[in-house]
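Q: Given only this backbone (310 positions), what sequence would you predict?
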């Protein structure tokens, strides 16, 4: 994640413990009147075939190399927005509650030096404590997006990580997470959301809504039926956090859709609509799972979409 590759973000602080390929860091930029920090909350490795669905390996491997277990390196990039109402955090990485076997299977590297995970370390580098966060918005409740919503304390008790925050979620996503089937159960763990339900800390949204001035949740179904993205707008500038609609910069071609998606043809149409707008209106896309490319603009490239390198 060199600053040259992402001229719009300025690296603020690196982490000495981070592997080179990830460089756990906080990158900061101004978006109109808002300050936005992209916090790398951890590394994760997922099967390359599953990440690119029907795209054959010889094609995707040219862009992203696979390890000996056929996994590709991913990140878990969260956003912290300094907003007049307080600090707004978008997605929270994988958290600290999974066991060693799980962490090995998914190649998770996120153990913090000062806090439980890289997320708290990134916040600390900005002099932010978990209790300072006013709002947490989750794109969806999969473990690698909402795992950090709760934390296992030294006493073994699992609590909301951000004790003073409201947690904003599509109502349908919680219901979907609570009623899993054989295909979806591997991604949804009650310990990531049940403690928040128990403390009545969720604020539910149905559909598109401006949550606070300039921060809007936008339903982007396909990966899950109630998956949402977040649009940030200030003084005419727009940043868009697609989350798993386009998890990396390699997922801009329309057919490059994850095998994990429960409704891939819905993803296709959601992506077509969102990327068309993004290209036309010059939005900055911020990629949650890209290990190296934090953000970029998108351009129409023939019939499809590509990262605008210019
Ligand atoms: Zn994900």
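A: Predicted residues:
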């Amino acid at each position: 994640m060199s600053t040259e590759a992402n001229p719009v973000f300025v690296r603020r602080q690196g982490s000495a413990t981070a592997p080179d390929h990830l460089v756990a860091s906080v990158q900061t930029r101004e978006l109109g009147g808002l300050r936005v920090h992209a916090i790398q909350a951890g590394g994760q490795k997922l099967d390359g075939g599953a990440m690119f669905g029907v795209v054959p390996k010889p094609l995707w491997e040219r862009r992203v190399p696979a390890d000996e277990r056929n996994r590709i390196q991913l990140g878990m990039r969260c956003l912290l927005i300094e907003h007049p109402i307080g600090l707004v955090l978008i997605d929270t990485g994988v958290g600290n509650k999974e066991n060693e076997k799980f962490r090995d299977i998914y190649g998770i590297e996120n153990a913090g030096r000062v806090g439980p995970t890289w997320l708290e370390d990134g916040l600390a580098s900005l002099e932010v404590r978990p209790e300072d966060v006013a709002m947490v918005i989750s794109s969806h409740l999969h473990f690698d997006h909402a795992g950090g919503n709760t934390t296992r304390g030294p006493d073994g008790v699992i609590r909301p990580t951000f004790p003073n925050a409201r947690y904003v979620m599509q109502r349908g996503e919680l219901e979907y997470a609570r009623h899993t089937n054989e295909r979806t159960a591997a991604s949804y763990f009650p310990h990531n959301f049940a403690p928040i339900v128990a403390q009545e800390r969720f604020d539910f949204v149905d559909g598109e809504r401006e949550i606070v001035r300039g921060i809007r949740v936008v339903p982007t179904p396909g990966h899950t039926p109630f998956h949402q993205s977040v649009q940030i707008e200030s003084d005419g500038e727009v940043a868009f956090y697609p989350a798993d609609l386009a998890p990396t910069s390699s997922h801009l071609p329309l057919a490059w859709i994850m095998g994990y998606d429960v409704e891939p043809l819905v993803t296709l149409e959601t992506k077509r609509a969102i990327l068309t707008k993004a290209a036309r209106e010059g939005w900055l896309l911020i990629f949650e799972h890209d290990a190296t490319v934090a953000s970029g603009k998108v351009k129409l490239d023939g019939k499809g979409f590509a990262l605008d390198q210019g």
